[in-house]
Write a structure and sequence with these properties.
Helix content: 25-40%
CATH class of one domain: Alpha Beta
Number of helices: 13
Largest sheet: 7 strands, parallel
Keywords: Glycosyltransferase, Transferase
CATH architecture of one domain: 3-Layer(aba) Sandwich
Radius of gyration: 22 Å
Family: Belongs to the UDP-glycosyltransferase family.
Mean pLDDT: 83
CATH superfamily of one domain: Glycogen Phosphorylase B
Protein name: UDP-glucose:chalcone 2'-O-glucosyltransferase
CATH topology of one domain: Rossmann fold
Shape: globular
GO molecular function: UDP-glucosyltransferase activity
Distance between the termini: 62 Å
InterPro entries: UDP-glycosyltransf_plant, UDP_glucos_trans
């Protein structure tokens, strides 16, 4: 009889990363009754998770999945480059992770205890590879974004390390960039995520990609029919660890009871598949000029819409967006009056419950740090703030 094995999951802080890690952990333990998983959670120094988020996932959880909250780390959030904050924050947790893994390995000597089989780390947690190396166990990446984005990271890292090309030079450039994981070339200066055009951000992502190559394998939340070109392009280059498309990893059950909420009641009154839902994630927020451009596109489209609009934190401070006390101050004058009946502007959104509603016909969300979307003939490109007519 084989000995039970244990994996240590290390998601990045934030609801989206935690939820994805928990969902794949549930799938894995369901496939092997000799597998145990410990999920290590890091808490940011500002309030980022809705109250009870972790509890919602631990309720009715398999007894073979346990959670360990790492000690909180105090790190300054004022004046620090946002693209460096997460690096420092996660690196500060290495000692805590080592302590947890040490306790696991100290207790796995008997036949009744599972052996440590490896670490499964989030794409931003590559510094934890050092901890796995210390214990002589393999590291796997759980990549919560798309295979196309993974291929972009690898390509920019290759350009940097092998051809001495700095991707920040694409800023304000009209040059087209050929990326193997993309079917078509892209206008680099206007389409590359802004993080790749920032010196610190580019260096961090390139370093992550470089360290991905040290791991035993990469699990990607995608599937072959969706991203066959990207998956083949990465797997066929001969320079990357084995790639495992493990998606779609979805939790289609809403964890909070939103029955009877004002938002869902409003959706109940809308025709089927008629509403465009705009929601830009837990970090999604825009400046006033960009908000007005989105409002411009929505109003001219004439479509029904539900818009989760949240206020950006001060520029000198790293924090999550918050709800507006009153949306009127940031929206175009009269916008709410002119769109009454066909549109609703809200704050924090019960996203799963909304997406499951019969009235939702389209979803506008974030994609790799740049938002680009079109609504019924209107094109709005951000962050350039150009709202123009399109004949497409």
């Amino acid at each position: 009889m084989k000995k039970a094995a244990e994996l240590v999951f290390i998601p990045s802080p934030g609801v989206g990363h935690l939820v994805s890690a928990v969902e794949i952990a549930k799938l894995l333990v369901a496939r092997d009754d000799q597998l145990f998983i410990t999920v290590l959670t890091m808490k940011l120094p500002f309030d980022c998770m809705p109250k009870g988020t972790v509890d919602a996932y631990t309720d009715s959880m398999s007894q073979r999945i346990k959670f360990v909250d790492l000690p909180e780390e105090a790190i300054e959030t004022w004046g620090i480059n946002p693209n460096l904050f997460l690096k420092f924050f996660i690196e500060n947790h290495k000692a805590h992770v080592k302590d947890v893994v040490t306790k696991l390995t100290e207790s796995d000597q008997s036949d009744s205890k599972p052996r440590l089989a490896g670490l499964v780390i989030d794409l931003f947690c590559t510094s934890m590879i050092d901890v796995a190396d210390e214990f002589g166990v393999p590291t796997y990446i759980f990549f919560t974004s798309s295979a196309g984005f993974l291929g972009l990271m690898f390509h920019l890292q290759t350009l940097h390390d092998e051809q001495n090309k700095d991707c920040t030079e694409f800023k304000d450039s009209d040059a087209e960039l050929v990326v193997p994981s993309f079917v078509n070339p892209l206008p680099a200066g206007s389409v590359l995520p802004g993080v790749f055009l920032d010196q610190h951000g580019a260096a961090e992502f390139i370093n992550h990609a470089r360290r991905f190559r040290e791991t035993k394998g990469i699990l990607v939340n995608t599937f072959m029919d969706l991203e066959s070109h990207a998956l083949h392009s990465i797997s066929d280059d001969g320079k990357t660890p084995p790639l495992y498309p493990v998606g779609p990893i979805l939790n289609l059950k809403s964890d909070d009871n939103h029955e009877g909420s004002e938002i869902l009641k409003w959706l109940d009154d809308q025709p089927p598949l008629s509403v465009v839902f705009l929601c830009f994630g837990s970090m999604g927020s825009f400046g006033e000029d960009q908000v007005k451009e989105i409002a411009c596109a929505l109003e001219h489209s004439g479509l029904r819409f539900l818009w989760s609009l949240r206020q950006a934190p001060p520029k000198v401070m790293i924090a999550f967006p918050s709800d507006y006390a009153d949306h009127k101050g940031v929206l175009p004058e009269g916008f709410l009056d002119r769109t009454v009946g066909i549109g609703k502007v809200i704050g924090w959104a019960p996203q799963v419950a909304i997406l499951a509603h019969r009235a939702i016909g389209g979803f506008v969300s974030i994609a790799g740090g740049i938002q680009r979307w079109r609504v019924s003939g209107m094109v709005c490109r951000l962050p350039h703030g150009q709202c123009t007519r399109s004949n497409n």
